[in-house]
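Page 47, continued from p. 46.
Same chain as before, 155 aa.
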Amino acid sequence: MERERGCKTGAKRVRLRFPPGSSRASKHIFMPQQHKKVLAVVSDLFFSVKITDAAKRAGMSVELVKDPHEVLTKAKAKPSVIILDLNFEDARPLELIGQLKGNAEYKGVSLIGYLSHVQGELKQAAQEAGCDMVMARSAFSQNLPMILKRHSGGG
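Result:
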């Protein structure tokens, strides 16, 4: 099967190739793309905008959530990745990581946390709680497009 991009509806055009001698040499069908989602648990407006912009460029949708109970509810839809501001105390990030990683219902959802580079103890605690990737704010900001591209299936 050969894939081609370029349909205006966001679907992928797929060219099916049939065996030689078949009455149908090739046929195009359109398959809708699976829309990947980012769940962002952030309070900082700057990072909210940065995440939203990078996600759009990666072909992903973003849902910004601030309530920990709402995060658990929305995580049942299996977003590609959940981004956590580990300094967002109202969201209780360490407790949230434990709940997400401790329940089979959320299996397969990647968790990425970011924090200040001087918060070594918080980084250690987040990793022990099960956060898949913990990064300094500056590294997260710099690598965000590449991270989301990887989670969108584009690289």
